[in-house]
Design a protein that fits this description.
The protein contains one helix and six strands. By secondary structure, it is mainly beta. It has a single domain, classed as CDGSH iron-sulfur domain, mitoNEET-type (Ribosomal Protein L9, domain 1). The strands form two sheets. A four-stranded antiparallel β-sheet has the order 5-2-1-6, with no helix packed on it. A hairpin with a 2-residue loop joins strand 3 and strand 4. The chain is flat, with a radius of gyration of 12 Å. It starts with a strand and ends with a strand. The mean pLDDT is about 95. The structure holds FE2/S2 (inorganic) cluster.
Length: about 70
């Protein structure tokens, strides 16, 4: 699995088509999770990082899941 931390933005996490977050089923290929702390819809990104001026470098995390 590859998690992408976008430049100045959220973590993009692939779901394989479906994920459950705090019991809420999400049927999307990926979810965008807030890493700036300003979203009004945590854990999801709502775009607030732009107005907040959040800055962080891009990064990629690759996980081998057993
Ligand atoms: S990363 Fe987008 S609102 Fe926090």
């Amino acid at each position: 699995m590859k998690i992408t931390a976008t430049k100045d933005g959220p973590y993009l996490v692939p779901t394989g088509g479906r994920a459950a977050i705090d019991g809420e089923v999400i049927e999307k290929a990926q979810v965008a999770l807030c890493r700036c702390g300003h979203s009004q819809n945590k854990p999801f990104c709502d775009g607030s990082h732009k107005a907040a001026g959040f800055e962080a470098p891009a990064a990629t995390v690759e996980l081998e899941l057993g």
